[in-house]
Amino acid sequence: MNFFKKIFSKEKKETLDKGLEKSKSSFFGKLSKAVAGKSKVDDEVLDNLEEVLVSSDVGVKTTIRIIDRIEARVAKDKYLGTDELDQILREEIAGLLSETEDQTNFNLPDKKPYVIMVVGVNGVGKTTTIGKLAHQFKSQGKSVVLGAADTFRAAAIDQLQIWADRVEVPIVKQKMGSDPASVAFDTLQSGVNKGADVVIIDTAGRLHNKINLMNELTKIKRVMQKVVPDAPHEVLLVLDGSTGQNAFEQAKQFTAATEVSSLAVTKLDGTAKGGVVIGISDQFKIPVKYIGVGEGIDDLQVFNKFEFVDSFFKQNL
After folding, report:
1. E strands within the chain?
2. Cβ distance 130 to 169 under 8 Å?
3. N or C: which end of the chain has fewer CB within 10 A?
4. Where is the binding site, in residues?
5. Domain definitions of the chain by residue range
6. pLDDT tens digit sequence for 146-188
7. Taking the model in full, what pTM does it have?
8. pLDDT score of 103
9. Mapping DSSP to helix (H, G, I), strand (E, B) and coil, where does residue 200 land?
10. Which CATH class name applies to 114-304?
11. Residues 292 and 269 sit within 8 Å (Cβ to Cβ)
């Protein structure tokens, strides 16, 4: 059974449309200026479009790939009107993203617990993402245990406790300054003893010393494997979409420090930098699995790249 398809239905399209409103308005405002007074897609329009895409946080590499695709289309069709540009962009970006392997079909294994280790710098919405994930799993009748292994900040432990209380799932925690690996070990033991379906482990979000971060995450993994030999089954990196290009840099840093298997991009509803999802989805060989498009407990969605592109380029009539 495709569990993730089951929990995250396509009925949330309106929320997605609304969540991308700021990004869309900003993008189309820039696009209108880029084609002002032009009826044909020519070199000048393409140069302006390149600036629009880069300034919309799509990223330089992905922008170049998009422009190359549109140039090829112009050469083939001979004449393209600027009034067709938003539709062309929608088609070419969807085509570009479809070239990457579709890894959005995630299945929970029969063996439990399914262990998710969540990483990311402080302030990206890591703990909130964990809480919303726990809610999603629980809403489908799955039992969840949370582990507060970010022991370097009392606020992190307190925040995760608040989410555990809100979602009504058990949490394993120790006092601030405790060994994170010890908390992870206890959490997995608790998950096994309770017969939990899913265990979600929070980790500290410090990037100032990549070697220490790498060592810490490696230790947490090693200790977890004493309880569940193949844990963690997923390493989810949470990125703040509102930071734009900084999100790219964080992705580079964390993927160098540990084996990240999936990405979540949060806070897209409060920013005009939603184009960053297009770039990250294109450039990293790691699937964007979730996007945060609102503050509500149900506003964490499984990322569907085609629905995303459709919402991003949907003109309000």
Report:
1. 114-119, 144-148, 171-172, 198-202, 234-240, 262-266, 288-292, 300-302
2. no
3. C
4. 120-127, 202-206, 266-269
5. 12-98, 114-304
6. 999 999 888 999 999 999 999 999 999 999 999 999 999 999 9
7. 0.88
8. 53
9. strand
10. alpha beta
11. yes
